[in-house]
Write a structure and sequence with these properties.
The chain has 130 residues and is of the alpha+beta class. The protein has two helices and four strands. The protein has one domain.
Amino acid sequence: MSLKLKIRWVLILLVIFIVTTFTFFSYREERALALEDIDALLVTAASTYRFIVGEGFHDKLPPREQADLKKMHTLSVSLSRYAKEAGVPYVYAFALRDGKPVYVLRYRMKKCSKRQPSITSSRMKPITTA
């Protein structure tokens, strides 16, 4: 093997190493930035929820049979508007009742081509775990 060929192979391997290293670190950095953006969106959604329903909402929540359905629907509509504006596909709240988590309000966007949201309000429905 001539010296030119050896140098060529060393350069090829060096380029492959540099490209691989650059790709790896770029991917890691972009992934971290994407996760930061997602975290910020989720924290904002969680913080804003408190302002939509009001302070102490879960503490004053009556049993399902005594719930003010008109008020709950109004809150669901407010949540859906917020979720659409924020670009959050799913917003929900739950509270503990008798040591069990139960849904209070939730909004989720239906999976469809037009991305039309649907409001699903399941007041005080127990969460089932698999």
